[in-house]
Amino acid sequence: MTREHNPYLQFTREQWATLRDSVPLTLTEQDLQTLRGINERVSLSEVEAIYLPLSRLINLYVRAKQRRSRVLEQFLGQARSNTPYIISIAGSVAGGKSTTARILQALLERWADHPKVELITTDGFLYPNDELEKRGLMRRKGFPESYDIRHLVEFVANVRAGHEQVEAPVYSHLVYDIIPDEKKVVEQPDILILEGLNVLQSGMDYPEQPHRVFVSDFVDFSIYVDADDDLLRSWYIDRFLKFRSGAFSDPNSYFHHYAQLSEAEATGIANNIWEEINYRNLVENILPTRERANLILTKGPQHAVEQVKLRK
Q1: Is the model's pLDDT at 106 over the cut of 50?
Q2: The pTM is what?
């Protein structure tokens, strides 16, 4: 009888927290206020237990890669290159991957070995709404076919190649669209964090195009933010209700028409959007990529990470 191989080391929250070693906590409560998502209650104790050990691990990986690069450059007689370490963060809508990315950026840029850390979300590489309308994809926004993958891969490849300046499109959640003529310029970062639904997808997801290059081909370390389906649904609905009384009330919001709904009506609509779009995308396209991640953060209630799985 063959024993099934488990590619991951598994840690409880308490076990993982001990791996912080002596890394100091450099974030304050005020810092954290600017990093939290609208429906997340991430505490400083969460940063200490989960994110400080993670930043220490990534720092060790980055330093090891930098040393290997110096050895190769010395062997080849080349000048030092500006090749960034690329981290991807994937997971469901409402799972907290954006907050994870922001906290990780804030911690990593405090390390002396890599002070320049850029964060890019793949939302900017969605097709503009007018193009999605032409393709009949507005109800499939966030699904793989709604992204300009060629543009996204070109962006990551150029950053990896050390280009002095690389432009990324900017997406507005207020107007629910790409902002015309607005770009974010990335200038040779030490670390690039890519956050999005699709960053772990590979050629395995597109068998009809077996030779296509994907974002995952350029990634050094990947993270998947995981949670139970019922929690994700609850978090999505809670977030929708908060937007209803907040961002949706702005007349410029794409979803302004939802602001006048009763709580019961808004809850029903949020649940339908979750079932018909976000949950379907999760099951079909996002969740199947989870086991490709180098690290899986599994959350319980209150967005607290309860288990960490690290690929051996």
Answers
A1: yes
A2: 0.92
